[in-house]
Amino acid sequence: MLSAGNVQSCLRKLEALLRVIKYPSDVDYSGLSKGDPSSFLPIVSFTLTTFSPPFAEQLVAAGLELSGKTDLRFTDTLYKVLRDIFHYKPILTKEQFLQWGFSQRKISFICDIINLVLQRHKQLHKPKVRYPTKHNIRKKSHLTLTDADTASKNPFVEDHRRNPFYFAYPAKRDTFSADNEGSAYRSEISPSGASEIPAPDEEESKESFLNASVMKK
């Protein structure tokens, strides 16, 4: 026969775990110490269906629904959860769990169930570390060129090799252009109606005439 001291020690452990999961209902410690199954089932139901919503959703997705069932069917599903989800072998059979007695074993059994659910709850709520993508880093590293930056890179002085006359005499360009236009206009129209600038053929005939005069002398 189990001693009362061992039962009280197990009850203290269970009480500490109930504070961790924030069990909201009153606890029948007298019924727990006697092994009353009706005192254990509400604690197990809250632990599996209410304490951790992500874990409860996992059970529903696995087809292990625990809500709205009789004590016998609830116990059947409970043992399936322990076997398939946690790979845990209970120290009591289903028949023993639904009987009176076995108080210390039942209390230890409930403590194991709470610890298993707490571990799974922590795994489901483990924060995920998110690293910045390389694409965002590249975007931040590139600087956008403004219009002033673009203009500062353009040369202010025109290449004088392409237009040496403009580079050497920029101030006289307009005057020269006007003189050229006036002389061209005067050369095209003269009082005699002919161009003042001699044609190339006339220059050659004059040179030939001069050369012939020199040779005769």
Automatic annotation (TrEMBL):
<feature type="region of interest" description="Disordered">
    <location>
        <begin position="177"/>
        <end position="217"/>
    </location>
</feature>
<keyword id="KW-0206">Cytoskeleton</keyword>
<comment type="function">
    <text>Centriole-enriched microtubule-binding protein involved in centriole biogenesis. In collaboration with CEP295 and POC1B, is required for the centriole-to-centrosome conversion by ensuring the formation of bona fide centriole wall. Functions as a linker component that maintains centrosome cohesion. Associates with CROCC and regulates its stability and localization to the centrosome.</text>
</comment>
<dbReference type="GO" id="GO:0005814">
    <property type="term" value="C:centriole"/>
</dbReference>
<dbReference type="GO" id="GO:0030496">
    <property type="term" value="C:midbody"/>
</dbReference>
<keyword id="KW-0175">Coiled coil</keyword>
<protein>
    <recommendedName>
        <fullName>Centrosomal protein of 44 kDa</fullName>
    </recommendedName>
</protein>
<keyword id="KW-0963">Cytoplasm</keyword>
<dbReference type="GO" id="GO:0005813">
    <property type="term" value="C:centrosome"/>
</dbReference>
<dbReference type="GO" id="GO:0007099">
    <property type="term" value="P:centriole replication"/>
</dbReference>
<feature type="domain" description="Centrosomal CEP44">
    <location>
        <begin position="7"/>
        <end position="128"/>
    </location>
</feature>
<dbReference type="GO" id="GO:0010457">
    <property type="term" value="P:centriole-centriole cohesion"/>
</dbReference>
<dbReference type="InterPro" id="IPR033603">
    <property type="entry name" value="CEP44"/>
</dbReference>
<dbReference type="Pfam" id="PF15007">
    <property type="entry name" value="CEP44"/>
</dbReference>
<dbReference type="InterPro" id="IPR029157">
    <property type="entry name" value="CEP44_CC"/>
</dbReference>
<dbReference type="GO" id="GO:0000922">
    <property type="term" value="C:spindle pole"/>
</dbReference>
